[in-house]
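User: Here's a protein and a ligand (S-adenosylmethionine). What would the complex look like?
Assistant: Let me lay out the input and then the predicted complex.
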Amino acid sequence: MKIAAIENSRSRQEELGQFLTAMPVADFMASMFGPLPRTVRLLDAGAGAGALTAAFVSRCCEKRDDVRAFEATLYELDGEILGALTDTMRGCERRCTAAGIRFTFTIHSADFIQEMSSRLSGDLFGSMPPAFDAAIANPPYRKISTDSAERRALRSVGVETSNLYTGFIALIQRLLVPGGQLVGITPRSFCNGPYFRPFREDFLSQMELRRLHVFESRKAAFREDSVLQENIIFHAVKGRHQPREMIVSSSSGEQGADVTETVFPFPEIVHPHDSEKFIHIPSTSGHAAAKETMDGLSASLASLGVTVSTGRVVDFRLKDALRKEPERGTVPLLYPCHFNGGTVHWPKLEARKPNAIMDNAETRQWLVPSGMYLLTKRFTSKEERRRLVACMFDPDQVKTDWIGFENHLNYFHASGHGLERHLATGLYAFLNSTVVDQYFRRFSGHTQVNATDLRALTYPDRDTLQAMGREMTTLDLTQDEIDQLVTEHLHACR
Ligand SMILES: C[S@@+](CC[C@H](N)C(=O)[O-])C[C@H]1O[C@@H](n2cnc3c(N)ncnc32)[C@H](O)[C@@H]1O
């Protein structure tokens, strides 16, 4: 749909906080809404030339879901843009008529902050505040001083905030019905700025944050304007309980650009005991870089002659054969609790898990011959820095002929036997590197690492892994040292 063109001077733009949303971004925002009711009461506060409502309406008309009517309410203070806004709404009307949807709109040439604060505080006698099912917003950004008319108006409804945009969002959330949705594009500053703490508390107590989207470039989201703020888009639903998980996505902001999505447990975004209520946005650009690195690798586990399997000892099925302490006729049994930095610590007599398993005709089929094995945990706790935690079983450290690997770990082997030492240590460095961890987090929001996930990864070729392994005189390296080693070798093999 065509958005009418407007001209405005730079100083006037700044006074009004007027930065118009580029069409691809408006369309992307519209795509973030969940299911809508049959009649959608839509709010566009600070509507400009109407790009956001136009994108929202276009999406719904295209999707042809259950929406049968739109009642759009638009607030815009700038008299010079009202003609363009009306033209855009007429375009929406035509689009809806063609799709068999009713479209009505009301443009309020008024100050959204003043009007809604009065209505919400009950100052305008007999005038109930309106209610909305959906709101789409690119509110104006401008600092508002403590004694300004805006601050006083907002204070009358219990909102204490120092920027126009957070004032807009705080009012919008109060106007939504329970379950009502808001998609907004705003500066990122509210996520961690100390001045925005009251806003964050207020917002997170009334709205469920479902998704955050960040742009890799600061300028990308806006049409030709020099916006120096870093912006984010969020989708939130009116309700009191935060979701267990939420999506964090990123894109360049250009039309048709790839969108990288990652699911995170909500407590990783807002830490449950953080009194500041900071909203942490994980570095998705790191994820994109990780993807690029991994895409550049050519080997698969199979081409390296390596297999990854889940530990074969299922302890509750072999209860009678398990021993707390090693004794005559037993061999080591390894659980994730035996991971100790880069190597295994065995036996661990203080642990609750058994340390040994009888080696007999019944159990031998679940054991593997001694050798160099790389082990990874199948389940990591949220507190662990990395999703992938790899450690080495070195036969020089634990002398035995046979070993049992328990079912909560995965082990890398060569056709059921140990790996060549340098290949194993190279793999150890690679799997413990930040690049692999970030790549992994792109597609997995949980803490579980399955053997199939490890098989699906791309790997450096055998020579590169062995070269990495040869350079490692100890497994006891810091994360930075591992990352440096892996990065150097991956660059060298390109
Ligand atoms: C950042 S622009 C976004 C415009 C439009 N929503 C878009 O995305 O293209 C914010 C708009 O809010 C308008 N505005 C500023 N203060 C306002 C207020 N107090 N009440 C209503 N509109 C206001 C500005 O004139 C400007 O058009």
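Summary: The first strand starts at residue 39 and ends at 45.
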